[in-house]
Amino acid sequence: MTAKLINGKEIAEKKRSEIAEEVRKLKAQRVTPGLAVVLVGNNHASRTYVTNKEKACKELGIKSLLIEMNEEVSEEELLIKINELNDDPTFHGILIQLPLPKHIDEKKVIESISPSKDVDGFHPINIGRMMTGQNAFLPCTPYGIMVLLEESGISIPGKHVVVVGRSNIVGKPSGQLFLNQHATVTYCHSKTLDLKVHTNQADILVAAVGIPNFIRAEHVKEGAVVIDVGINRNEAGKLCGDVAFDEVSRKAGYITPVPKGVGPMTITMLMYNTLKSAAESLNRNM
User: Which of 12, 104, 118, 248 has CB 3.0 to 4.6 Å from 100, enough for a Cys bridge?
Assistant: First the structure.
């Protein structure tokens, strides 16, 4: 068996085209979706990610603002800036690029963002709404995974989903979104005993551990759907995922590659959440 590729780049392009059309409709009603991104310090990976967000905003007609603050900025100054953005009606989304310097409390910063502008989907109110199946801004990478499966025609209800990884950003919310779609969900992590016993039961296997080539063919059931969230560098410096692609792709039914798999969907869903926030602000003001 050779797995069918789930091409995240192609699906992201399709979704971005749909978002751009909705942005044009909002502009016709004199509402321009706006995203404000706050970057603290000069982390290279963070700066690259922010640049890609700015590029996506420009392509889709979304107003973008980058606020750069130095590494030594106080927590109080950052919170004041976030409060200003909360009160600014021209920006519908606020994103604080993580990680933050160690002297700043990330939890306090995330909770200071208005839930109605939390387009990253990290605020406890949005997490709570997601947990209870209410309208919420969904975390972008898990949301992107769900869209990939939907666009690929992969049914979720009744399936056994195994998520390897329990981060607040990907692992935990991914499992919850699958549960909301009537899947049976198992979480695995660094303390899980006999990992293969669990992963070999998965109809859909999500790898989100941040370890290059961690999931091997022996972990995968024949014909399973394998979603690789990892973005790593191997010993040769080559970009790779958490899944040993060459061997797993010969056993899986569907698989996401790295790159051009889950990655392109993360920023795409951020753009969607910003559009959604702008549309909801329009409805509130009508």
Answer: 104
